[in-house]
Write a structure and sequence with these properties.
Blueprint (H helix, E strand, L loop, with lengths): L15 H7 L7 E5 L5 H14 L7 E5 L2 H18 L14 E3 H16 L6 E3 L1 H14 L12 H13 L4 H8 L7 H18 L1 E3 H11 L3 H10 L2 E4 L7 H10 L6 E5 L14 H4 L10 E5 L7 H12 L20 E5 L2 H17 L7 E5 L6 H9 L4 E4 L8 H14 L4 H8 L7 H13 L3 H7 L10 H12 L7 H17 L3 H15 L5 H10 L11 H5 L3 E5 L8 E6 L16 H15 L2 E10 L1 E2 L3 H5 L4 E2 L8 H4 L3 E3 L19 H7 L3
Parallel strand pairs: 1-7, 1-8, 2-3, 2-6, 4-5, 6-7, 9-14, 9-17, 10-12, 10-13, 11-12, 13-14
Antiparallel strand pairs: 15-16
Bound molecules: adenosine-5'-triphosphate and magnesium ion.
């Protein structure tokens, strides 16, 4: 008979396969490949605890994963299990794992350490994706590429081509042929452009996201450094391995070439990042990449969801083009089947979901136990209004990025420029915040700073144009102060904010709302040890939403989670609602071009459904607004149930149609529920 678990024994409930992975010994690398909710992350956490109990130093255990939220979840759960395993009181803070994070954030830390050895500027700044696009735009313009005809790819396409090439470890030609055939004619120019982009980054001491991986991988090409780095980490464990790209897999390989001390866990049926260059073959080919091959453990029992939810999820993935031969089972009884809820439109969907959330709360489910998931950040707009109207607190993950808001970028540009006066991109933005300084003056000054032996003196000697004469001195003072190394963080933030606030109010009518964001940022700043750490981590780990990101007080209270399907990875809730399960949304109309894209959307729905523990509902609005613009003009299309809910899948659900929505006929096998592209074309007819 199984022992009942005590809070201090995290291993007591593990099943045989999980224990096999947790207690694995020897040099052989370990692969755990298993379906959703089968305890992969738990097994990884327990293995860390087992290793520590057997004498491994937690500071020498490296935990990696792809996305920020998954990294957070992995670190949180590992800390929790470690605390139990070490028999620390439940009130004690979980032991700190110094090296748990995303590939990008760990890469940034290691590169910062190695900088002097590998020819990197120690004060390098990290560019987020939109900064990288801005820099690419600058280089593109300076190189005259913009004038070579209209069809030269735009900045975001250029960044995407560059990024895909590097992350897939492909040649530019391969990337263009397979992913961007319409840009293939520009191969030679793109090569030059990327070289100029690389040069610009290096001159300014900047690394973009891809550089963090690329430099890391390149550095590990040096035998001495690779040996030291491999020895520094006794164990390397990777969660969500199916989301890694080739470059990340290559880094792991260089860290642990023999595979000793290596464990990866993942689920090929949950691969949803191919669009960013993830390579599902990484996990499928992992075992064979070593001699002898990695030990493979599979887990089939699901501990998360009820059988009815699993049946529906299994039915969705069973129709996938590639076979994911895992049939999950559980012995959690299902008092209720999942529901397909047919509603009239966006507004009815919002009302229904808000009422359900409140109803479940009355039944004893905290808001935190419930989540609403959607394909794209903008799809929750109507629901957000409804929740606000009913005073239901929520936190949204995914969607509008905090760092993309102009005011946040302004403040960060000031701090970055103050940190390094050679940071041209930040300087270009920061200087133009001074009234009277435009692009040409900013460029001229930046060119001077680049040449100057003492950039700060050059900045102080700058003669501003007459229109800027009044405001320039205060700006020069601010920069002088920010360049002073004696200034202690976060005092720099306070100074930059004090200088910026009057300009914020001058520039924006809605300054009060924006000011609240900046205060939020200042509050966050306090949690970082230094300006450098703050700027790096923030570029890698931005708070997600702007303005509607609920303030601090909410975080202690109960709140509903709103999340994109991508950001829901690795999480679970007792009740999950998925919005807009209609063709055009899931699959997204952006993704209906290629079969692989459609398959990725199917796995995305599978990821969403397998987040639910007890209650799952899929919302199917009959009228669907394809975009925010269409909503403004009240242009809607009649959506149809997602093609992924074929009849045999629909049979796993209860069908509900609240008042106002007619119950649509169940879809017929083999018939596309709806030709949305044709309807969209019809909008303009
Ligand atoms: P995903 O594929 O979504 O990342 P996963 O395979 O990582 O899922 P976990 O998140 O580790 O799965 O586990 C799912 C749930 O099942 C968690 O609540 C976990 O605590 C629970 N669980 C896992 N294994 C066991 C077990 N042996 N006994 C009891 N509960 C378990
Ligand atoms: Mg997991």
């Amino acid at each position: 008979m199984r022992r009942s678990p005590t809070p201090t024994d995290p291993f007591a409930t593990l099943n045989e396969q999980q224990l096999a992975a947790v207690n694995h010994r020897g040099e052989q690398p370990l692969l755990v490949i298993a379906g959703a909710g089968s305890g992969k992350t738990l097994t990884l956490a327990c293995r860390v605890a087992r290793l520590v109990l057997e004498g491994a130093d937690p500071q020498r255990i490296l935990l990696l994963t792809f996305s920020r939220r998954a990294a957070h979840e992995m670190a949180r759960r590992t800390g929790q299990v470690l605390r139990q395993a070490l028999k620390l009181p439940a009130t004690a803070a979980p032991p700190h794992l110094a090296w748990a994070g995303t590939f990008h954030s760990v890469g940034a830390r290691l590169l910062r350490e190695w900088a002097p050895r590998i020819g990197l500027n120690e004060r390098f700044a990290v560019l987020d994706r939109s900064d990288a696009e801005d820099l690419m735009a600058l280089v593109r313009q300076e190189g005259g590429y913009a004038e070579r005809g209209q069809r030269f790819p735009l900045k975001d396409t250029c960044v995407a081509i560059c990024s895909q090439t590097l992350n897939r470890q492909a040649s530019l030609n391969e990337t263009l042929t397979s992913q961007f055939p319409w840009c293939a004619q520009w191969e030679a120019e793109l090569k030059q452009l990327f070289a100029a982009y690389t040069h610009a980054k290096q001159c300014q001491g900047l690394l973009d996201y891809d550089d963090l991986l690329l430099y890391w991988w390149q550095a590990l090409g040096d035998a001495a450094l690779a040996g030291a780095c491999g020895a520094r980490f006794s164990h390397v464990l990777v969660d969500e391995y199916q989301d890694t790209n080739r470059l990340q897999a290559a880094i792991v390989q260089r860290l642990k070439p023999s595979g000793a001390g290596l464990m990866v866990v993942g689920d090929d049926a949950q691969a949803i990042y191919a669009f960013r260059g993830a390579e599902v073959r990484n996990i499928l080919d992992f075992a064979a990449g070593f001699t002898p091959p990695a030990r493979t453990v599979t887990l089939e029992r699901n501990y998360r969801s009820t059988q009815a939810i699993l049946d529906a999820s299994n039915a969705v993935i069973a129709l996938a083009h590639e076979r994911h031969a895992k049939q999950l089972w559980t012995n959690t009884a299902s008092p209720q089947r999942p529901a397909l809820v047919h509603v009239l439109d966006d507004a009815a969907q919002a009302t229904w979901v808000a009422e359900q959330v409140l109803g479940r709360r009355e039944e004893g489910l905290a808001l935190k136990d419930q989540a609403v998931l959607f394909r794209t950040g903008s799809h929750s707009a109507a629901l957000e209004l409804e929740l606000a109207r009913r005073h239901i607190p929520f936190v949204k993950f995914g969607g509008l990025k905090f760092l993309e808001a102009a005011h946040v970028k302004d403040l960060l540009a000031l701090l970055r420029f103050g940190h390094s006066l050679r940071h041209e991109l930040a300087g270009f933005r920061a200087l133009q915040l001074v009234p009277g300084i435009g692009a040409s003056h900013a460029r001229r000054l930046l060119a001077t700073l680049e040449q100057a032996a003492l950039p700060l003196a050059a900045l102080r000697n700058f003669k501003p144009p007459p229109a800027a004469a009044r405001d320039w001195p205060a700006f020069a003072e601010l920069m002088t102060s920010l360049c002073n190394e004696a200034l202690t963080w976060p005092a720099d933030m306070a100074q930059a904010l004090a200088w910026y606030l009057p300009h914020l109010h001058r520039k924006h009518d809605d300054a009060a709302v924006r000011e609240a964001d900046l205060q939020q940022l200042q509050h966050l700043a306090g949690g970082f040890g230094s300006r450098e750490r703050f700027l790096t981590e923030l570029a890698l780990d931005p708070p997600e939403a702007s303005s509607d990101w609920a303030g601090e007080p909410l975080l202690d209270e109960d709140y509903l989670v709103l999340s994109t399907l991508h950001s829901a990875k690795g999480q679970e809730w007792k009740a999950v609602s998925i919005l807009n399960v209609v063709d055009g949304c899931i699959p997204s109309d952006m993704a209906t071009g290629q079969r692989e894209q459609i398959e990725e959307e199917r796995r995305l729905l599978y990821v969403g459904m397998t987040r639910a523990r007890q209650h799952l509902q899929l919302l199917v609005p009959q009228r669907f607004y394809p975009s925010a613009q269409a909503r403004l003009g009240d242009r809607h299309v009649y959506g149809g149930l997602s093609r992924f809910i074929a009849p045999q899948v629909a049979a796993c659900f209860d069908h509900l149609a609240p008042a106002g929505a007619s119950h649509p006929p169940p879809p017929q096998a083999g018939v596309l529920p709806i030709d949305l592209p044709a309807q969209l074309r019809g909008l303009w007819g």
